[in-house]
Amino acid sequence: MLHIRFIHGAYLLLFLIGINPSYADEIRRLDVTNDAGRYTVRFEVMLDASVDKALPLMMEPANWPKLSDVIIDSQVLSGLPGHKKKVKVTLEGCVLFICKTLLKTELMESLPNGEITTLALPDQSDFLYAREIWRITGDDMHTRVEYHAELVPDFFVPPVIGPYILRKKIQSLLIQTAHNLERLTQ
């Protein structure tokens, strides 16, 4: 019974944020919560794409603008020891009629096992805190993408309607990214 409620709730959520429900079969998990301005995002999707094609797209920052319309630029500022890089990401998004450009400079670590972690540098970002973890696994036919993030924006989010609108925007962005990744691996 709980599973049926979850599926119905997911379809309703997807309808409300303007996503075609036919894509819902790919989505395994999609949660966005807000606790006093700290957003926690969890996302899991199964793609009809080889992990050997999807993983390189995710691990190279130069590819990120191809995955999301919100990312308008992404560049490696410097390489660091191990599998680490310092990356600058420029994001541009609109909510209702308000558009904003955000900068996020982060330390990125990409491991050969398909795990990518990022940690924003607050003094060089429009986020007080931003930590993201991507896990990309799969086989020749499918790629499983798991995403977990904690985000604390360093810009004003209206307390009454802001969290609702921001949740919708984050959810839409993550779904779009998954679909673009699938399309680019075909």
Plain-language structure description:
With 186 residues, this protein is an alpha+beta fold. It has a single domain (27-184), classed as Alpha-D-Glucose-1,6-Bisphosphate, Chain A, domain 4 (2-Layer Sandwich). The chain has helices at 2-16, 51-59, 64-67, 162-184; strands at 27-35, 38-47, 71-79, 84-95, 98-110, 115-120, 127-138, 143-153. An eight-stranded antiparallel β-sheet has the order 1-2-8-7-6-5-4-3. The termini are far apart. The model is unreliable at 1-25 (pLDDT under 50).
Largest sheet: 8 strands, antiparallel
Overall CATH architecture = 2-Layer Sandwich
Structural class estimated from helices and strands: alpha+beta
Helix content: 25-40%
Going across the biggest sheet, name each strand in turn.
Answer: 1-2-8-7-6-5-4-3
Number of helices: 4
Unreliable spans are 1-25
Give the CATH class.
Answer: Alpha Beta
Write a concise synopsis of the structure shown:
This protein has helices spanning 2-16, 51-59, 64-67, 162-184; strands at 27-35, 38-47, 71-79, 84-95, 98-110, 115-120, 127-138, 143-153.
Keywords summarizing the entry:
single chain; 186 residues; alpha+beta; Alpha-D-Glucose-1,6-Bisphosphate, Chain A, domain 4; 8-stranded antiparallel β-sheet; globular
SSE layout and pairings?
Blueprint: H1 2-16, E1 27-35, E2 38-47, H2 51-59, H3 64-67, E3 71-79, E4 84-95, E5 98-110, E6 115-120, E7 127-138, E8 143-153, H4 162-184
Antiparallel strand pairs: 1-2, 2-8, 3-4, 4-5, 5-6, 6-7, 7-8
